[in-house]
Amino acid sequence: MDAPVDKADGMGWSGMMARRRQRRALHLLLATGVIMASLGFGWGVFFASRGAWVVAAVEMALALLGGVVIVMARLRRIRAASWLAFTGLFALLCFFSAFLDVSTAAVPRTVHVFLLVLAVCAHHVFRDERPWLRYGVVTVLVGVFVFFAAAPVGTPDRFAITEDVRRIGIWINLATAAASLLIVLRLAETDVAEHRALHRALRDALSQRRFRLLYQPQVDAGGRIIGAEALLRWHDAQRGLVRPADFMQAAEDTGFILPLGQWVLQDACRQLAEWRREPALQRMRLSVNISALQLRQPDFVQQVDDAVTRSGIDAGLLTLELTESVLVHDMDDAVGKMRALHAMGVRLSLDDFGAGYASLSYLRDLPFAEMKIDRAFTRGIVRDAHAASITRNLLQMGRDLGIDVIAEGIEQDEQFALLCEQGCRLFQGYLFGRPMDATAFRQRVTATP
Fold first, then answer.
1. Distances (CA, A) of 120 to 124, 126, 141, 177
2. N or C: which terminus of the chain carries fewer CB neighbours within 10 A?
3. Which conformational region is residue 402 in: left (phi greater than 0), alpha (psi within -120 to 50 degrees), or beta?
4. Going by DSSP bridges, is the β-strand pair 225-236/426-428 parallel, antiparallel, or unpaired?
């Protein structure tokens, strides 16, 4: 697991994309709120002047909803404002289409057209929600639109809007719906363009060898370096060395994590092959982080086998670090691949144990050779008795299961001393060295007694 590194620019690709998406969602919500408030208030006043109090009340409810959405959006409560706008609009549009804007032989229903606009908006605004929820909302909205579009001609009740008003409303509704749809499509087009630009930048960086691996030492209780974790950096001409936190999510969003992850694996094996030729380095272990998308590739085990075979390294010196999230999707497939990797001799490490989904069954039933205690627990162990108790129990668990335990995020001598007292024997953190290039790592190892 990587630790923060100093850099001049505090925002990477992922941060920029996230902020731009949030800004576009904010603008879309503000525009939606303004349209709702304007149309609702205007039509509310109009229907009130004609004595159509039920229709006027519904329109004023729309105006009020639009006002609340605007206030929440300006307070940056984007998610809550989005759900309020969509659920409120959906309910009002359904009520309007069913009881107030009823199709007759002379004038068709048109309010239901806004359900299509709402569906396109939902696909854009809820892009960060879980897929089943995002596409479920879109499916419901389109399905209800089809229902009202196919509904037969009805007989309006006494509260329905009169045909003379609905003839005028047809043009207003369709013009407003068309304009709203164009705005949403323009935002979606901007997203696609940014997605392509980012993928192109990452692809060019890989082809031009702008990615590099740095190595953070892993030490034993005596301070002797026994291995390292390979940490990826992007050497950007404008921002310098960019850490994974600022581009890895973007790489996953674009699918670029697959070729990038394969390059990291191959370069790590190449480095192990170089170390094998030096007596002081030939037994060094090297850990590589593996993403969930990489593990889900059908040929992932073959990729690892090819990298190990071509480099001629001892597979036992390569450790693949898996976060707990990789075990959430398609557990059977993940387990099968992990057992195949274990059979090859590759070591498996459970990264950030205790910070996510993991349970004891993962460690007991799966072929992990080590687990890493998340820095969230090691950070406060000197002053927090509860955190110290957690690390003590995790270390005991590792001994009971017969697997190595590495404590991450060690920055102070007091942390190191306390963990040694608790029986920890493997460590990683700034106290023992920041991520460094291969030359500096070699010098560090050879200089260690």
1. 7, 10, 9, 11
2. C
3. left
4. unpaired
Euclidean distance between CA atoms 325 and 372, whole angstroms = 15
Q: 370 - beta bridge partners?
A: 349, 404
pLDDT tens digits, 359-401: 566 677 789 999 998 888 898 899 889 989 989 999 999 999 8
Contact of 376 with 396, CB cutoff 8 Å: no
CA angle (311, 315, 319) in 5-degree steps = 110
Amino acid at 336: G
What is the number of residues in the chain? 449
Q: Residue 67: how many CB atoms within 10 A of its CB?
A: 16
Of 258, 338, 319, whose CA–CA distance to 291 is shortest?
Answer: 258
- What amino acid occupies position 219? V
Residue among 346, 338, 253 at smallest CA distance from 296: 338
Among candidate residues 447, 20, 3, 378, the one with its CA nearest the CA of residue 214 = 3
What pTM, to 2 d.p., does this model score?
0.65
- Residue 152 in tokens: 């037969």
- Given its phi and psi angles, is residue 128 left (phi above 0), alpha (psi -120 to 50 degrees) or beta? alpha
Which string of DSSP letters, residue by residue, matches 12-72?
-HHHHHHHHHHHHHHHHHHHHHHHHHHHHHHHHHHHHHTT-HHHHHHHHHHHHHHHHHHHH
- Burial of 421 by CB count in 10 Å (0-12 exposed, 13-18 middle, 19+ buried)? exposed
Q: What is the DSSP letter of 436?
A: B
Tokens of 190: 């901007």
Q: Which one-letter amino acid corresponds to residue 422?
A: Q
